[in-house]
Design brief:
CATH topology: Aminopeptidase
Largest sheet: 5 strands, mixed
Bound molecules: coenzyme A
CATH architecture: 3-Layer(aba) Sandwich
Shape: globular
C-alpha cells in the first residue's frame, strides 16, 4: 500500500452516525491504538472496554462514530451532567479519537460538530473537556473548535504494590494458621 492510499480512500464517503452495539469492539480497539502508555499515560490507564460500554449504556445518543467505507475511523464519546442547584446543564466530551493514518483531514472536527449540535438540542449550555497538558494535537484541536479558559489540573498516582504484597502476606499467614488458633485470635 503506498502512502497516498489512505487519503484517496478518505475521498470515499465519510459518515458520522450514532454508535451501535456492533461498533463497541472497533471503538475500543481504535482507542487502544490512540491512548498509549507512552503518549498519554493517564488516558491509557482509564481507557478500557468497560469505559466504552458504560458511556454507551448510559447516554448512547452522545456516542458517535465516523465511518469511512464501512470502517470505524473515529469516535467521540460524551455524557451530560445536571446538578440539582444549578439551572445549567453541562456536556462533557470524554473521549475523542481519529485513526492515526487519517488525522488532520477534518474527521474529528466533523465528529465534534455533530456532537455539539446534539448537546445543544439537549439543552446543554456549556461543554467541558480535559486532556493531558502535553497532548498538543488535542489542545490545538480543542482551541480551534472554540474551547478556552484552560485551567491546570494535576494528576497524581499512588502505587499500592507494597501494601498489596503486605496484605497478601497477611492473608497467607492467616490461611496457614490452624483453624482453632485463628478462631481464638478473632
Ligand atoms: C486530537 C485528534 C482527535 C484530532 O483529530 P483529527 O481528525 O486529526 O482532527 P481534525 O483533522 O479535525 O483537526 C481540526 C483542527 O484541529 C487542529 N489540529 C488537529 N490535530 C492537530 C495537530 N496534530 N497539530 C496541530 N493542530 C492540530 C488543527 O487546527 C486542525 O485544523 P487544520 O488541519 O485545518 O489545521 C487526534 O489527533 C487524535 O485522535 N489524537 C489521539 C487521541 C486524543 O488525544 N484524543 C483527545 C483526548 S480524549
Amino acid at each position: 500500500m503506498n502512502e497516498e492510499e489512505p487519503s484517496k480512500k478518505k475521498s470515499g464517503s465519510l459518515v458520522i452516525r450514532q454508535m451501535e452495539i456492533d461498533d463497541l469492539a472497533d471503538v475500543f480497539h481504535l482507542g487502544e491504538k490512540l491512548f498509549t502508555a507512552r503518549e498519554v499515560p493517564n488516558l491509557y490507564r482509564t481507557w478500557d472496554e468497560y469505559e466504552v460500554i458504560s458511556l454507551f449504556q448510559s447516554e448512547s445518543e452522545f456516542c458517535l462514530v465516523a465511518e469511512l467505507d464501512g470502517e470505524i475511523v473515529g469516535f467521540v464519546l460524551g455524557t451530560t451532567i445536571e446538578k440539582t442547584q444549578s439551572a445549567w446543564k453541562y456536556g462533557q466530551l470524554v473521549w475523542l479519537g481519529t485513526e492515526p493514518e487519517l488525522q488532520r483531514k477534518g474527521i474529528a472536527q466533523k465528529l465534534f460538530k455533530h456532537f455539539r449540535d446534539l448537546m445543544l438540542e439537549d439543552g446543554v449550555r456549556m461543554l467541558l473537556t480535559d486532556t493531558e497538558a502535553d497532548n498538543l494535537p488535542a489542545l490545538h484541536f480543542f482551541r480551534k473548535l472554540g474551547f478556552g479558559h484552560p485551567q491546570q489540573h494535576i494528576y497524581l498516582t499512588l502505587n499500592l504494590s507494597d501494601q498489596l504484597k503486605e496484605l497478601k502476606g497477611k492473608k497467607e499467614n492467616q490461611r496457614s494458621q490452624p483453624r482453632r488458633l485463628r478462631s481464638k485470635d478473632e
